[in-house]
Amino acid sequence: MINRVEKLSLLSEMIAFAKYDKDIKEIEYNFLLGVAKQLDITREDFDYLIEHPVMYTHLKSHSERIVQFHRLVLLMNIDQEDDNNSAGAIKLYNFGLRMGLSHESITKVLYLMESFPNKIVPPDVLIDIFKTQYN
What we know:
By secondary structure, the chain is mostly helical. The chain is 66% helix and 0% strand.
């Protein structure tokens, strides 16, 4: 179970990821707000994080890092208007490395992403990719 500091860090990281193209679109904001609700973060705290990011806290649990990576994959692909996703893929790759995930697994997810509808890798496929590399 992750604590409040880790939850705020996760959300702050996702906000930073969404801001890589300078502004958070409404669809991204709503997605992030949904994640905040899942993490039991109030809207006021969420809105505060948009302007005041918290310091990154490394998650100890490998499974929590995989879940966070999946959230970032979803966030990257939520905006279907963005035709040039190579910058987002690079950013996602770097976030995954910073979380301590294997570069082989990250690369495989990015490669397989193209073969799924809306580029959304199902959770079970993503978990299998990371399990294979972890063992």
